[in-house]
Design brief:
This protein has about 260 residues and is an alpha/beta fold. Helices cover about 50% and strands about 10% of the residues.
Amino acid sequence: MFVLSKILWVLGSPGSLLLISLCIGTLLLWTRWRRIGRTVLAATAAAMLLLTVLPVGRFVLTSLENRFPSLERLPDKIDGIIVLGGAVNQTITQARHQPSFNGSAERMTEFVALARLHPEARLVFSGGSALIFDTELKEAPVARAFFASMGMDVSRIVFEDSSRNTYENALYTRDVMKPLPGETWVLITSAFHMPRAYGCFSRVGWKVLPYPVDYVTTGRYGLSPGFSLVGGLSSLEFGIHEWLGMIAYRLLGYTDVWFPAAP
């Protein structure tokens, strides 16, 4: 199921669909169905213009990021802090021999900050490999090296390195940490990813305190136009990926509701 989901996303992502549409329309121009080809190319161009000018992707991401409020104050006593993987670029890390992160690096930095503010808390990093190939390249060893470079005592951190998706993050981390009823555990992940993550932790019976980070929108639904196909397409891909993930997780029974929200 994991490999199938990755393949389906590669083929069905907005960028891939636009490319496939361009190829089909171009090929049809060289056949007797050239009129259909022109129609396909025109529709593709219109879709690309729409993504370039209008904040379609930003709307999708905003709906996800606004689902859980940003926490300005945490309880005085915290029993544990969880940070989910997804910020590490394992391939570049291996090639360059130093920790490399993507745009979600705030997951890691906020974890360091909260761990220092709450020395009483148990700590866990959850992240194996989300790669189809090179599955031996896992996030946990990279996280260990990064946290050590930040001056943290890594013997204090539990590294869960078997999970490959968000549901496994919740399931395996619960099994490793064995949280007790009434404990307060903080969950750190990107704001747009928090609905799916919170839904998974709730599904395995773990009521966590969501701590969204890594915001990419202001939270306002504005209609201000832009002119960036790359930016518009990137935002849409992130948002659509999460919405499709939530739908798939609900159908698979990994979450209890379609669009998880704060309690």
